Amino acid sequence: MKVKRGIKIALLILSFAIVCLVSAATYSILVIEQTKFEYEILLLLAIILGGVLSMVYQIKTMKFYSLKTKNLELKGKLFWIGNLVFSISLFCFSLYFIYFIFISYANFEAGMQNSILITLAITILILLVGVFLALETSTLYKRILNQKERDYIDSIDDIKGHQEEDFNQF
Which UniProt keywords apply (predicted)? Predict the structure, then answer.
């Protein structure tokens, strides 16, 4: 559980860093450079909105990785959806950026600058964060479903146990 909790904290910190980076980039594009609004900006806005919801989701589900927690239930599907939107947006954004880098520098062997390599490394990190967010969400969802199924089976076993005790008294 400690490893999963550590991964969750790392995802929270990386999500915060990505949201700050994308917010600064969006502010720079829209306000400082006074670029006209295009549809590509919607992806950046989806990353910001989904990122904020994802951070709230990460904080609210942190308690699920404690050994003491028995009731695994998260109220509100908005946080689940926000986390999935954030992970899908990061995935799409990263693939778009990798494609852009590939098109710009089709011949990777000739003259690839350090700044492009750093950009590529950051883009791959963002891609991995998106993948790990989706995997963590899926894993936690399956864990919650398994817990509900176990609780249901335990409640049936409790009913059966009480019925057998009633029959043994007679």
Answer: Membrane, Transmembrane, Transmembrane helix
